[in-house]
Amino acid sequence: MLRYLVLFFFLIFCSHCSSAKISNNCDVNSDSFLNQLLFRIVVKDKSYHCGYKVAPAACTLSYEETHLPENWRQVKQEVEAQFALGSSEGETLTQYNPATVLSATGAAGTAFQGALAAPNGKVYLLPYNSPKILAINPKTNNYEEATSVPGAIDFIGGTLGPSGIIYLSPHTNNTFYKFDTSNHTLTNITNITMSGAAYNGGVYAPNGKIYYVPSGESIIRYYDTNKGTIGSVATPVSGGIFANGVLTPEGKIYFIPHTATNIYILDTNTETVTQHPFSFGGAGNYISGIYTPNGRIYIIPHNVATLYYVDTHDKDTVVEAGTIPNVTASMFNGVVLAPNGKLYPIPFNYGKFISIDSVTSDIKMLMPNPGTSSYRGGAIGQGGQIYLSPHNANRFDLLDTKSNGSFCDPVRLSPYWNKF
């Protein structure tokens, strides 16, 4: 910001010391045009001027701006530029801290489900049966107890909203909570009587609302971060449980079916809900989804072999993208997009880690999963490492994707990819 201000005032000074040019605000060679353009860059004014629009680079945005539709082109360009750098060598799995999950939390098993990166540089492991939220410092690979929470699957996942606040998704708890990562305080928002297993994760939308993903509840509830109120969408979903939600640059949220059969699509611009006609079969067949810069939503298998993606650039056509070999029950839980352009489904009961190329859909088998019911979700670190969320794995592990590139913080924290 300072260098822009210095440049701005320097150019104004020079313009007054040189021969005046045509005083036409829309003449690209005029002083007034250049001065106004520089001023717009400094103050991040994105309105049109003489048919031109200032488009700040993705890494100069705040993470709260990366999912605004008008910024998608820059975000896409930045992500694809990192993809083009590829990987240096084969991925590795590392136990980054020698402590056990049991010693850190007191939870003997099923400790966490989901992880989120925060603007303070830390990764937060979100509770399943753990009585604590843990904060991981990727610079030291040490952990700290961030706060205590109710147990017994009170929450499944959470959503990073504006100002570094994580909104926990109530599962068996009737209370909506928010967790401030800047000072590690947990605050009760409100209490609503709901069905059991109410929600699974959520999505931070461009309109400032946190939409909770329906599980036992059919009502799509939201927390409006601008107004500080809880509300709900008029049209409910039906048919069963949804595993998580995927945001697209058009401001739409695709709810990924688990025991439900079809994808439901919430247009957050109008808060209208539509049902995609394709049947994914229900029965826990699929568990997660993720958006890629080429307009695809990859649907991650849980109990079946077929990998699909939804092509949002081609009328939401569902495309069969590949087959997972050696199918087992409850294979994956969660998926992370890395700076090398690959997707990494997080293994739960599947015997190996795998990668999926986001352009070719090629599936590659990697190292063994060290256990069963091991992990549920993960979060990308600053260097392209994936900090895994231990479920029954009694250890703290990371998957190093060996990406040559890296995501700057605004992209790494973007609601498109930093999610449960």
From TrEMBL:
InterPro entries: Gal_Oxase/kelch_b-propeller, Vgb, WD40/YVTN_repeat-like_dom_sf. It comes from the Bacteria. Keywords: Signal. The keyword Signal applies. Residues 1-20 form the signal peptide. Gene3D superfamilies: YVTN repeat-like/Quinoprotein amine dehydrogenase. This is Lipoprotein. It comes from Leptospira bouyouniensis.
